[in-house]
Amino acid sequence: MPRQRAAGTFAPPRISMRSRPLTTEAHHPTRAADKPYARLLGKSFLVVEDEPLVALDIVAGLKEAGGRIVRPFGTVQDALNAIENAALDAARLDGSLRGQPVDEIAAALAHRRVPFFFVTGYGLECLPPAFANTPMLSKPFNQQATD
């Protein structure tokens, strides 16, 4: 029987979230390339989210997938400082931080050529117009929505 993950656990878009069957690891070792998250192993992620519980859930999902997290940030200035000072492979950006626009964060990520996507519960109208073609995931999301 496949192992089930908790509903609401985050995973980036376009990556299969299907659980692999339980195996006896000692008898059938799994290579990193066989794991569904092999492309995320060791990658450094910036999480910009102003809701602490959502941020914790996202961080847990990325860590489970083998990613390294530059701690979650909930303000524009903290996120900008992290972008300037951290080596990043990708970022997940909330569409609004306590009502503040995230245009400056998106621009800083684009300037550093850090791939990112937006997550929002409001819709496209709240996202920076200059980044209208950036991938977006709607909140609330669940495991099945990211398959």
Q: Main traits of this protein?
A:
147 residues; alpha/beta; Rossmann fold; five-stranded parallel beta sheet; 3 helices; 22% helix; globular; disordered N terminus; disordered C terminus
Describe what you observe in this structure.
Helix 2 (76-85) packs parallel to helix 3. The protein has one domain (37-146): Response regulator (Rossmann fold). A five-stranded parallel sheet has the order 2-1-3-4-5, with helices on both faces. The protein is globular, with a radius of gyration of 16 Å. The protein is of the alpha/beta class and 147 residues long. It has helices spanning 52-64, 76-85, 103-111; strands at 44-48, 68-73, 90-94, 116-120, 136-138. It contains three helices and five strands, in the order βαβαβαββ.
Number of helices: 3
Total strands: the figure is: 5
Strand order of the largest sheet: 2-1-3-4-5
In CATH, the architecture is 3-Layer(aba) Sandwich
- Kindly estimate the percentage of residues that lie in beta strands according to DSSP: 15-25%
Determine the structural class based on helices, strands and strand pairing.
alpha/beta
Shape: globular
User: How many structural domains?
Assistant: 1
Order of helices and strands: EHEHEHEE
- Relative helix content: 10-25%
Show unreliable segments. 1-34, 143-147
Q: Per CATH, what is the topology?
A: Rossmann fold
> What CATH first level would be assigned?
Alpha Beta
N-to-C terminal Cα separation, in Å? 19 Å
Main sheet specs: 5 strands, parallel
The overall pLDDT, averaged over residues, is 75
CATH H-tier superfamily: Response regulator
Q: How much is the radius of gyration in Å?
A: 16 Å
